[in-house]
Amino acid sequence: MPSNLPKARLRKAFNEGRRSATVDGAENPYDNAKLRQLWEDGRAQQRAGEIKTPIPPLEHGETRAQRGTQNPPGSKRASNPPRRGFPAPRVRRPR
């Protein structure tokens, strides 16, 4: 069964695992099973010294993966702040 994840996303997860290999207490930031496995594989291979190519640097504007915050069960969902910008369009009534 083919994956719906783009190859670039898979590659990023693997490289992120490689970057985390130097940190002992690093936590896997991915919820997706395939991305979790790629992160673990990259981390394990980098620690074992199996990969000879250097870890690719982060591209301009790219940030390290972080685990998203999740609301605990039973809590209210965080409300969105009111939109700023243009006022609501006025409805013209025919005379």
Question: What's a concise summary of this model?
Answer:
The chain has 95 residues and is mainly α. The protein has two helices and no strands.
Could you characterize what this model shows?
The structure is a single chain. With 95 residues, the chain is mostly helical. The chain has a domain at 7-48. It has 2 helices and no strands. It has helices at residues 7-19, 33-48. Helix 1 crosses helix 2. It starts with 6 loop residues before the first helix and ends in a 47-residue tail after the last helix. The mean pLDDT is 80.
* Class based on secondary structure composition and strand pairing: mainly alpha
**pLDDT < 50 runs, ≥5 residues:** none
Strand content: under 5%
Shape: elongated
The major β-sheet equals: none
Average of per-residue pLDDT values: 80
Listing every helix as H and every strand as E from the N terminus to the C terminus, the arrangement reads HH
How many E-type strands? 0
C-alpha termini separation: 61 Å
- Radius of gyration, in angstroms, nearest whole number: 21 Å
Estimate percent helicity.
25-40%
Give the count of helical stretches. Answer: 2
